């Protein structure tokens, strides 16, 4: 039996298969850490394959490790 492509469970979460995309910094947010259409497209293109662990989101200005990464410490970022 092909267990890689068979439906499975991660704790209480039903998953389509065991293909899980590791988090990868895409650097597709704006310089101010706002989400972009490019980011939505990137995830949408991969969504049918399996589970995706998204990239990191900086919780503060000091927490930013890379350029053009997503932030979640301002109202503008939250709303983007
Ligand atoms: C927030 C976050 C961002 C990451 N970004 C990248 C990345 O851009 N490129 C990359 O090769 N690995 C990135 N990694 C590490 C990968 O998720 C993965 O752990 C690494 O490629 C090693 O994979 P392996 O254990 O299957 O060899 C990131 C990890 C985290 C937590």
TrEMBL record:
Residues in NADH:flavin oxidoreductase/NADH oxidase N-terminal domain copies: 4-77
InterPro entries for this protein: Aldolase_TIM, OxRdtase_FMN_N, Oye-like
PANTHER family: NADH OXIDOREDUCTASE-RELATED (PTHR22893), NADPH DEHYDROGENASE 2-RELATED (PTHR22893:SF91)
Name this protein carries in UniProt: NADH:flavin oxidoreductase/NADH oxidase N-terminal domain-containing protein
Lineage, highest ranks first: Bacteria, Pseudomonadati, Pseudomonadota, Gammaproteobacteria, Alteromonadales
């Amino acid at each position: 039996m092909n267990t890689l492509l068979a439906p499975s469970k991660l704790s209480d979460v039903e998953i389509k298969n065991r293909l899980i995309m590791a988090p990868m910094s895409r650097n597709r947010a704006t310089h101010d850490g706002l989400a972009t259409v490019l980011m939505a497209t990137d995830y949408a293109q991969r969504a049918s394959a399996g589970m995706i662990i998204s990239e990191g989101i900086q919780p503060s200005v000091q927490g930013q490790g890379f350029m053009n990464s997503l932030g979640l410490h301002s109202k503008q970022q939250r709303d983007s």
